[in-house]
Design brief:
Layout lengths: L4 H29 L11 H15 L2 H34 L6 H28 L8 H30 L2 E2 L6 E2 L2 H27 L7 H4 L1 E4 L2 E4 L4 H24 L5 H9 L3 E2 L2 E2 L8 H22 L6 H26 L12 H29 L5 H21 L9 H28 L6
Antiparallel strand pairs: 1-2, 3-4, 5-6
Helix pairs in contact: 1-2, 1-5, 1-6, 2-4, 2-13, 3-4, 3-6, 3-13, 4-12, 4-13, 5-6, 5-10, 5-12, 8-11, 8-12, 8-13, 8-14, 10-12, 11-12, 11-14, 12-13
């Protein structure tokens, strides 16, 4: 089905922003926990994980504020430009940071958090605005948009990780310790932001027209007793908002497990997975590209699979798909438990490594779950939310990632004490149970959507 050209402009804008985000995120836990002589900041796993969790959590908290400002005052288009500019400053602050200039590191994180609040909910809302509420192209549009996210996420660890871990790496004076040049990875991430914004600002008027320029909250107002007031929410609108909040709750459980990819699973891969292939050791940060490459490979399958089931009258509703997502996530963590069993447990010699296929298999199941939840959730929010609350509700959807990322960093605290097998096993059991509960509640939730499909 032919899509509007504006979708592809937003596709490439988001692609470069996600290149920037995931390039930086793939290095962050390593930059925090590597020793100063290795080019890192020298934090312990516990403190490094805490900072990682706080950063990635707040990145998804500020979109609520940025969405509200866009809905009521500045519009989505202007918000995206403001957010991108602030994030670019943040990436260049990280480029100039070091253990001796750690204040620039913290300043960079703050700028990235603020900028993302303006950018993230509004570009997603713009995608939904390209379509009428009953346009059948909408869900596939979000799959296409989601592929843009993951193309950026695929290339960023390869480029940023190579710059940080290989190209500019030098030896310490005694020749025994490799020193990473993390700053060059952050520089590449900053350049990605610049490229995306050049495209967006040059082509926005041509391909997006006037969409998102005027804040929707200014449009939907009525006069009551000579005062300007917003129209009250109807019963149906309130029910649909309730559905969004239920979706956010279960999405939180999903992302809490999924985001282990950047923290505990990243550390596990660095320390306990055999990354040697044909005599060459895969850089740890490169493994962050496994999930995006699966997204790119599987997305065309999903865009054909759901319509095929629909034509046969067998397509599950969107809430059931989210239930399947949680179960698939749990099965992925079962594979990580298998990696621990192969090693003989968590507290054995660290030189004993698990097979790389355990990790790749976990990523495959996690990615399949992600495609059953994330694009579908984004599409549903744009359909369920009243127009005047669209960006703010998209920000609330991203609230699920706030708690998830806090937990992602927090669980690193127990990585050494409890052992990875126990952590992965608990996550697996919990999210599978959540998936089963969501499947049981799906009919009641769909009823409250009042015909939205």
């Amino acid at each position: 089905m032919k899509q509007p050209k504006g979708l592809y402009l937003l596709f490439f804008t988001e692609l470069w922003e996600r290149f920037s985000y995931y390039g930086m995120r793939g290095l962050l836990i390593l930059y925090l926990t590597k020793s100063v002589i290795e080019g890192g900041l020298g934090f312990s796993d516990q403190n490094g994980g805490l900072i990682y969790g706080l950063y990635t959590g707040f990145v998804y908290l500020t979109p609520i504020i940025g969405g509200w400002l866009a809905d009521n005052y500045i519009g989505q288009r202007r918000s995206i430009a403001i957010g991108a500019f602030i994030m670019t400053i943040g990436q260049f602050c990280l480029f100039f940071s070091s253990a001796e200039q750690i204040s620039l590191f913290y300043l960079g994180l703050i700028f990235l958090i603020i900028g993302n609040g303006f950018f993230k909910p509004n570009i997603t809302t713009l995608v939904g605005k390209l379509y009428a509420p009953d346009d059948k192209r909408r869900q596939n549009a979000f799959y296409i948009f989601y592929m843009g996210i993951n193309i950026g996420a695929f290339f960023s660890p390869l480029i940023c990780g190579t710059l940080a871990e290989n190209t500019f790496a030098t030896k310490a004076m005694d020749g025994s310790i490799e020193r990473y040049a993390f700053q060059y990875g952050f520089l590449a991430a900053g350049i990605g932001m610049v490229i995306g914004q050049i495209l967006y600002n040059m082509l926005g008027k041509k391909y997006l027209g006037d969409i998102g320029i005027v804040a929707d909250g200014k449009k939907e107002k009525v006069i009551v007793n000579n005062k300007v007031e917003k129209e009250p929410l109807t019963k149906i609108e309130k029910d649909r908002l309730t559905v969004i909040l239920i979706m956010v709750l279960f999405a939180t459980f999903f992302w809490a497990g999924f985001e282990q990819a950047g923290s505990s699973m990243n550390l596990y891969a660095d320390r306990y997975i055999d990354r040697e292939v044909l005599g060459w050791t895969i850089p740890t940060s490169w493994l962050q590209s496994v999930n995006p490459v699966f997204i790119i490979l599987l997305t065309p399958f999903f865009t054909m699979f759901w319509p095929l089931l629909n034509r046969k009258g067998k397509e599950p509703n969107d809430i059931v798909k989210m239930g399947f997502a949680l179960i698939l996530l749990g099965l992925g963590f079962c594979l990580m438990v298998g990696a621990g069993i192969q090693r003989g447990g968590d507290f054995v010699d660290s030189s004993i490594k698990a097979n790389l296929l355990w990790l790749v298999g976990a990523y495959l199941l996690h990615t399949t779950g992600e495609l059953c939840l994330s694009p579908i959730g984004l599409s549903l929010v744009t359909k369920l939310a009243p127009l005047r609350l669209a960006s703010m509700m998209m920000g609330i959807w991203f609230l699920s990632s706030v708690i998830a990322n806090f937990l992602s960093g927090y669980l690193v605290k127990y990585f050494a004490a409890l052992g990875a097998m126990k952590i992965f096993g608990i996550i697996a059991l919990f999210v599978i149970c959540c998936g089963i509960v969501l499947l049981l509640l799906s009919k009641k939730i769909v009823y409250k959507m009042h015909g939205i499909k």
